[in-house]
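Recall that a protein's primary structure is simply its ordered list of amino acids. Everything else, from secondary elements to tertiary packing, is in principle encoded there. The following example makes that idea concrete.
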Amino acid sequence: MMRSSVFAGMLALAMFAPCIRASASQLAPYQQGTVLSVDRQEVSSPSECCYIGTDGPLQSQYYAYDVSVRIGCENYVGRYETAFDFLSSAFTPNKSISVRLTKHILYFDVPGEREIKMGIVHRSHNDTASCSAGTSTARR
């Protein structure tokens, strides 16, 4: 009796999990953003163990891209890490891009590619005149 109720609960959870995830993604629609800058970093992390006795360096190499994007009056910096020295040409400064924003993640809708996910490493308010003017009229 106990096994069947646990099994039924797990089955119900497995069936409704995609629905819950789909409704969560509907809460954060894509918005238009503008790429401000892209900073490429080549990162090497030395291996601290496992000396094999060869002449080759024991380190892994990967690339990190810090992509700064403006969405409305907020600026976000997202970090994209990859083993390949490649970032889509959609991330060109002053280019418009579709962004889905969550609390800690930026999701970019890149045409012809899969959705690109970047963790937010910094956010700040844009203090340009257009944002200041929009804020003062919104408060009245």
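The beta strands are 30-46, 59-71, 74-82, 96-101, 105-109, 116-125. The helical segments are 2-27, 129-139.
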